[in-house]
Amino acid sequence: MRKLYLYGILLFVMVAWGLNIVAIKILVDNFPPVSITGLRILAAGLVIFVFLYVKKDLQKMNLHEFGYVSLSALTGILGHQALLSVGLTGTSATNGASILALIPLVTNILAVLFLKAKMTILKISGVFLGITGIYFILILGGGSFTKLALGDFYVFLSVIAQAVSFIFIRKASYTLNAKTITCYALLMGAGFLIMLSFALEGQSITTTGAVPAYVWVVFAASAIISTGIGNLCYNFAISKIGPGETAIFLNLAPFFSLIGSVLFLNEVFKLIQLVGFVLIVCGVLLGTGIFERKPRIDKQVEVSVSK
């Protein structure tokens, strides 16, 4: 019964994270992308900070730990969130969700390169399946390589930035708990994003004009529920059943993104793109070593601070 309860929490988080791609698409269509992303991440970071401060569950950082958390904020929050938000202004939420499904795969490739994780035949097969899935979605589904949107490229760069951040997070997690890393990375990343927004967009968010009331509801839900509460719940589940078992659920988030894109954004998802998405999920399952007899859990990243 306890595990069923935790699985329910994880399912809630995947729904929230999946629909968050739809929420971000709505927000960047109504506000300057970097500015609204900075405010969204700041709101999420403050929610987590207040929660952990009240529970007295925040650890102090030394200079070494501060460096790793800062680097994770630069890559995973500033890099990932800025590139994702800008990318979604130039591509569909369905394409964005499909590309983001590659994050676990790219993360494990970098873990092989930088964390000395083991590469196996199954993982190599997963990489090829993932690449094939992207080809089905972006090339066959979109028409041709020359018709690829610049937004797709930015979203792919955001995947790499997120995967790189996990390397720094893993280094920090040897001495800091997941909740502390998540909180400080969100707050630092929000600061970086807000500074970048002033440099790129000035005070344009103040001159955006009136937006429909539902957009502010979307903003609050994205910041508080998806990013704030979602990260807390996910890290809670990790502490109870481990990173390996929780990581399997990550494959559900893009699925809910695709459903949300069709239902709320009226986007069309072609059959060939569905085939590509299935290939990506299969590639992720193989590439992350879930089917290995003795998965090396100690090499897996235990924190998520991106959604």
From TrEMBL:
Keywords: Cell membrane, Membrane, Transmembrane, Transmembrane helix. It comes from the Bacteria. The chain crosses the membrane at residues 7-28, 34-54, 66-84, 96-115, 127-145, 151-169, 181-201, 213-234, 246-265, 271-291. It is a multi-pass membrane protein. Pfam families: EamA. It is found in: Cell membrane. Residues 10-138, 150-286 form the EamA domain. Belongs to the EamA transporter family. This is DMT family transporter.
